[in-house]
């Protein structure tokens, strides 16, 4: 089920007794919780709404609450957070959860209760009996399948609902600044609303002035300068990142990761793999693959390989010498620009 369809159903009071919300989209998770909580009238919330954290509370407590009839109301809402026992992950919580009671409940949920299981994970362990039963009986809201267009559409719709306008070019610029992260984009919007309050139009000037580039975005620019053999801009940007107190080893690690991705995407695209298939195979966000596909059209394999190997050497020097990181990066950039990297 898509998020907007869920919101419409909740607003129309057309809800099921059991939901599973899966994925790490913090903003959407909070919005989903707010919509569900609005099902319960304000004067009934104390008695008919409860939220449980499985890292500190036993699931049996939540089940007992869910099985109770609403107190002077039509519905009871029970939210279960962080059900780590649905995954293969280990938790520091030393709780002996009554998983059997949860399995029995999801098979026969209380009709007057809405139970929402919020699993902020990329995937669940489908081999577990409890996971299989929840997936079989629950309405699933899968936030892990949120793609680039979904993020763009959600942000654009939010801006329009606020009475503001934004061009497609500026919207793309905004999403690039936040690495297509919906939660981060929604966090940044209030600043843009305030800045553009008089005109109600979000401009490129506003985005440039208010939304700082992430380290990943700066490194993406750094890759572009290196591959264009634009040594001056590459060195200037690297120096700027150092002045921002970014760690040289972290910068280099992200650079290596980006060049590795470009090499992998180049090879897989030449073999005929689609953007979605590449993202699935490499287990990276589809947006990163999209940007990589745009870039590799301009680059050749030999140059990408040489840059990658040069950065490997640079990392070794960063770890083993006391030379200035700026000087080491400058030497790498100039050598690569002159095709002198072995």
Automatic annotation (TrEMBL):
Any single Pfam family the record assigns to this protein: DNA_pol3_delta
A GO MF label? DNA binding
* Keyword Oxidoreductase carried by entry: no
One GO cellular component from the entry?
Answer: DNA polymerase III complex
Q: Which InterPro entries match?
A: DNA_pol3_clamp-load_cplx_C (IPR008921), DNA_pol3_delta-like_C (IPR048466), DNA_pol3_delta_N (IPR010372), DNA_polIII_delta (IPR005790), P-loop_NTPase (IPR027417)
Gene Ontology biological-process annotations: DNA-templated DNA replication
What is catalyzed by this enzyme? Answer: DNA(n) + a 2'-deoxyribonucleoside 5'-triphosphate = DNA(n+1) + diphosphate
DNA polymerase III delta N-terminal domain residues are: 19-142
Q: What is its EC number?
A: 2.7.7.7
- Keyword set, alphabetical order: DNA replication, DNA-directed DNA polymerase, Nucleotidyltransferase, Transferase
Residue intervals of the DNA polymerase III delta subunit-like C-terminal domain: 216-336
Identify its protein family: Belongs to the DNA polymerase HolA subunit family.
Q: What is this protein called?
A: DNA polymerase III subunit delta
The organism named in the record is: Apilactobacillus bombintestini
């Amino acid at each position: 089920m898509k998020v907007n369809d869920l919101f419409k159903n909740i607003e129309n009071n057309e809800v099921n007794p059991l939901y599973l919300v899966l994925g790490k989209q913090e903003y959407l998770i909070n919005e989903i919780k707010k919509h569900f909580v609005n099902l319960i009238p304000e004067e009934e919330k104390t008695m008919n709404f409860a939220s449980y954290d499985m890292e500190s509370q036993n699931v049996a407590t939540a089940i007992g609450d869910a099985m109770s009839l609403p107190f002077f109301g039509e519905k009871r809402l029970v939210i279960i957070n962080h059900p780590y026992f649905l995954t293969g992950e280990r938790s520091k919580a030393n709780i002996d959860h009554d998983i059997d009671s949860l399995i029995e409940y999801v098979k026969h949920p209380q009709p007057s209760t809405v139970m929402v299981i919020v699993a902020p994970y990329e995937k669940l362990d489908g081999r577990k009996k409890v996971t299989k039963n929840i997936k079989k009986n629950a309405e699933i809201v899968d936030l892990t399948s949120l793609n680039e267009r979904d993020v763009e559409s959600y942000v654009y719709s939010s801006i329009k609902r606020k009475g503001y306008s934004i061009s497609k070019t500026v919207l793309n610029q905004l999403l690039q600044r936040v690495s297509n992260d919906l939660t981060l984009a929604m966090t940044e919007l209030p600043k843009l609303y305030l800045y553009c309050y008089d005109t109600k139009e979000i401009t490129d000037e506003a985005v440039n002035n208010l939304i700082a580039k992430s380290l990943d975005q700066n490194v993406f620019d750094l890759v572009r300068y290196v591959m264009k053999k634009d040594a001056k801009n590459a060195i200037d940007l690297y120096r700027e990142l150092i002045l921002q107190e970014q760690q040289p080893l972290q910068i280099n690690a992200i650079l290596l990761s980006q060049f590795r991705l470009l090499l992998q995407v180049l090879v897989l695209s030449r073999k005929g793999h689609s953007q979605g298939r590449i993202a699935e195979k490499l287990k990276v966000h589809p947006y990163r693959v999209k940007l990589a596909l745009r870039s590799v059209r301009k680059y050749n394999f030999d140059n990408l390989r040489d840059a990658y190997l040069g950065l490997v050497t640079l990392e070794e020097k960063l770890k083993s010498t006391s030379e200035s990181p700026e000087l080491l990066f400058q030497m790498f950039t100039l050598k690569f620009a002159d095709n002198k990297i072995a």
